[in-house]
Amino acid sequence: MNWARAVPGLLFCICFITSCFTNKYVLSVLKFTYPTLFQGWQSCTGALLLWVTGKLGWVEISTFPRSAAAHWLPGAVLFLGNIYGGSKALSMLFGPDPYFWAFVHFCCVGSYRVFQKNFKSSHLSELEQQFINYVLHEDLLFMGWKMWKIRCPHTFINTITIDDLLTYSGILGFFLLLAGVKLKTGPSLVHCAVWLFLAKNAFGATSCNVCGMLYSPSTTEDETQHLLFHNQFISAVRYVGWKKERILGEYPDGKIILVLPDDPKYALKKVEEIREMVDNDLGFQQVETKVPSQTKTFLFISNDKKVTGCLIAEHIQEGYRVIEEPLPEGSEGEKVMFERQRAWCCSTVPEPAVCGISRIWVFSMMRRRGIASRMIECLRNNFIYGSHLSKGEIAFSDPTPDGKLFATHYCGTSQFLVYNFISGPRLN
Predict the structure, then answer these.
(1) Which residues pair with 362 in a beta bridge?
(2) Torsions phi, psi for 281 (to 5 deg)
(3) Whole-angstrom Cα distance, residue 141 to residue 390?
(4) Comparing C-alpha atoms, which of 421, 181, 219, 171 is closest to residue 316?
(5) Contact 41, 169 (CB under 8 A)
(6) In sequence order, what DSSP letters do the residues of 272-337 get, joined into one string?
(7) How far apart are CA 37 and CA 144, in angstroms?
(8) How far apart are CA 166 and CA 25, in angstroms?
(9) How many CB atoms lie within 10 A of CB 353?
(10) Are 243 and 275 in contact (CB under 8 A)?
(11) DSSP β-bridge partners for residue 185
(12) Is 195 or 413 the better-scoring residue by pLDDT?
């Protein structure tokens, strides 16, 4: 069993159960008079915790354009309807129509999920969407607190106790949100297939304009796989930034930074998140780096603060030369197609090499803009202090068909060096 993937689900269950019991107890103390009180308090606590943890760099929340917030406003209104309808259905003070408000609550919940699924903007992560929801709902705290002060008898509530309970409830709601977001980036999203079925609006293969994945919206399995990769992609490519960035190059369309094994944990966590996404995109199996202390990661950050390129390099001792085979006669397009499809072989005689590129990846919609070449140039200038690597000292790991074409173009020959980053030799 993969415990690393089971932990988010376990934490989500613990937070969910604890939050349910805490909320039930708070409502019982309030005698189901003003449930908007604790709902509003949760919103205020959640907004404050998201803002603080975002400033500290613990969660990825950055500034976003007002246009993105405006586009998300219908979702925030539906979330508000969810809270308001549920509160009126629970409360004993708002009239004799609890079933009507329960119906409103369920409609808002379903509509919110469908809207969230179809929301195409890449400017907002799920945490940022929830932050906007929280900010919009902070007025519930003011209204609920004011009405409670006016109409609730002070004899049955200890103000300090209820303040503590409301704060605990808000904190638990915050951790439940984080656990839920983490869970959605894992393979446990199959339960969302119902919402995917309701949200379908297209047939045939289509390419997502955010993550670039080609999938069929008419197939539930394809939709589920797309949602898995889409959420992982959005989470991985968002770059909040951190202090003391190691910038190697700045360009009109972005910059290249270097992350080393002794960098802060939040930087290494981001690199690991990107690596998992890159491995999924390239079709690699999830393999841990054998010698993390000798690994260097180069990231290309676009001007809109997204990771659109990644190069992971490590120290090696030897590589193997690709054996060149003559191409058949034909047009340039036919040769490229043949090159993509044919198998290739390499020599069994090792040759000296210094640097192994285990992964090189560029976002599909940003390719053919020189990003990969610029990352390799930065690698050659910065892999070994005071030394400039030649192209012959670099080996590529089991390149994909596109990777083989790129390596051939960059090295100026189809007989470049390769190595196996899973079982290949390493420096001691």
Answers:
(1) 309
(2) -70, -40
(3) 63
(4) 421
(5) yes
(6) HHHHHHHHHHHT------S-GGGEEEEEEEETTSBEEEEEEEEE-SEEEEEPP-PPPSS-HHHHHH
(7) 4
(8) 10
(9) 22
(10) no
(11) none
(12) 413
Q: What is the mean pLDDT of the chain?
A: 74
Q: Which residue has the higher pLDDT, 323 or 207?
A: 323
Provide DSSP, 47-83: HHHHHHHHHHTSS------HHHHHHHHHHHHHHHHHH
Cα-based angle 167, 81, 60 (whole degrees, multiple of 5) = 55
Reference 321, options 256, 194, 413, 403; nearest CA is: 413
Cα–Cα nearest to 304, from 359, 228, 365, 374: 365
Residue 301 main-chain phi, psi, to 5 deg: -105, 120
* pLDDT tens, residue by residue, 270-313: 899 888 888 887 777 666 665 677 899 999 999 888 899 999 99
Q: Collapsing DSSP states into helix, strand and coil, what is residue 38?
A: helix
Alpha-carbon torsion angle 166, 171, 172, 174, nearest 10: 130
What tens digit of pLDDT does each residue of 142-181 get?
555 555 555 554 444 444 465 666 666 677 766 766 666 6
Q: Is 285:279 a contact under the CB 8 Å cutoff?
A: yes
Q: Which residues are within 8 A (CB) of 291 and not within 5 positions of it... i.e. 6 or more apart?
A: 314, 315, 426, 427
Residues 6+ away with beta carbon under 8 Å from 411: 391
Q: Give backbone dihedrals phi and psi of 368, rounded to 5 degrees, phi first.
A: 65, 35
Task: With a cut of 70, say whether residue 24 has pLDDT above it.
Answer: no
Question: What tokens were used for 380?
Answer: 């050659």
Q: What is the 3-state secondary structure (H, E, C) of 368-419?
A: CCCHHHHHHHHHHHHCCCCCCCCHHHEEEECCCHHHHHHHHHHHCCCCCEEE
Angstrom distance (rounded) from CA 45 to CA 50: 9
Hey, which residues does 417 pair with through a beta bridge?
321, 395
Q: Best-predicted range by mean pLDDT among 32-46, 115-129, 219-233, 378-392?
A: 378-392
